[in-house]
Amino acid sequence: MGTTAKKASTPYAARIAARGHFRTLRLDTPFQPRIDALMKRNDWYSWGGYRAPNSLWDEELEYFAIRSQASLFDISPMVKYRIEGPDAEAFLNRITLRDVAKLRSGRVHYTAWCDDEGHVLDDGTLFRLADNRFRLCCQERHLPWLHDSAFGYDVAVVEETEAIAGLSLQGPTAFAILREAGFAGIERLKVFDLAYFQHQNGTVTISRTGFTGDLGYELFVPAELALSLWDRLMDAGQARGIRAIGYTALNRARLEAGLIVANADFATAEHALRQDRVRMPDEIGLGFMVDLEKGHFNGRRAIARARENKTLRHILVGLEIEGNIPAEHAIVYHRRTREVGLVSAAAWSPLAKRNIAIASLARPFGDTVTDDLWVEIYAMRELRYEKLMKRAKIVPRPFMKLDRRTATPPADF
């Protein structure tokens, strides 16, 4: 009786937590000590099991750091695979959409891969580090699938997410900071180039890539050298306005650049619970990647058949919406009555001075029928939601282009 009474007086959640059930474990990246020291808001989210910042100090000012100074964002949780061996190129050509034979050593390209039905499993960046050595970076984990796909190829596939730390340095002063940090020759990197530089007793791989549509670079280094790399960049960037940022600011910048996110703007084939949620490359704006001339690859027959038979059912479009209230997750209508799609990402763009969005529409809407589109927005006004119907028009992506992104050598901001 006494034991029962004691248990009853203990809060249920506390008793369960004491047994370990409600403990949410979050992995720390190699940069976590520096990020924790800068965190002012205790605003975290889970990125692949890692504790990652939504915002560190002010999401608006973090966004403007990307566009007017330089931002530092920890991309260590991004899944990274080392793929190497005599058949590495042939293997990657077999599973990805683009022709890997055209990817020279020291270059990077954006690619995607599909299942046998032509539905996108994920998208990511492929780095050709050497003739027979690659790094594949993506959002989701695919190690078992990669191992199964490698059967018959003389190739090794190793996940190195924890072993390799990554940083994204983006913004107009990014080049000047790297030069100030002593990375001699960084001015020679063109967009999608990569090169190796010395850092302490090791090597840092720097590519001119990013997720912001701005001048920017991504740096990869062995995890044990992570903190010293962070300090090197922060010291060099003090006079150039370098700031650490979280995902909220990055997400607005990627939307302005018209870039998509797996399981946000489209459901990956492995995560979709319903058959009508999966997407083919042409349905999410990735049709330009498909190289039908390179030989067989996963999903080739299905993609070619869908194109030939005109059975593609969806299209991903950029929208400009009247007003300044973001339309995130808004339903898209034709002639205000017929539901034709859904907004997956939306924001007011301070740079473009437009209310922008990415939406998935059911064809022929967004394809041959592009007029009289509306979005349904629910706006909070004095503690009440009001339904607003706002006109939307289809516009090209990206929503803005910055010359400094591609200028070589970059300007000295």
Automatic annotation (TrEMBL):
Tell me one Pfam family matched here: GCV_T
Which ranges carry the GCVT N-terminal domain? 57-294
Residues in domain Aminomethyltransferase C-terminal? 316-400
Name the InterPro entries on file.
GcvT/YgfZ/DmdA (IPR028896), GcvT/YgfZ_C (IPR029043), GcvT_C (IPR013977), GCVT_N (IPR006222), TrmE/GcvT-like (IPR027266)
Family annotation (PANTHER family): AMINOMETHYLTRANSFERASE (PTHR43757), AMINOMETHYLTRANSFERASE, MITOCHONDRIAL (PTHR43757:SF2)
Q: Protein name, please?
A: Aminomethyltransferase family protein
Species the sequence originates in: Mesorhizobium marinum
Q: What is the lineage of its organism?
A: Bacteria, Pseudomonadati, Pseudomonadota, Alphaproteobacteria, Hyphomicrobiales
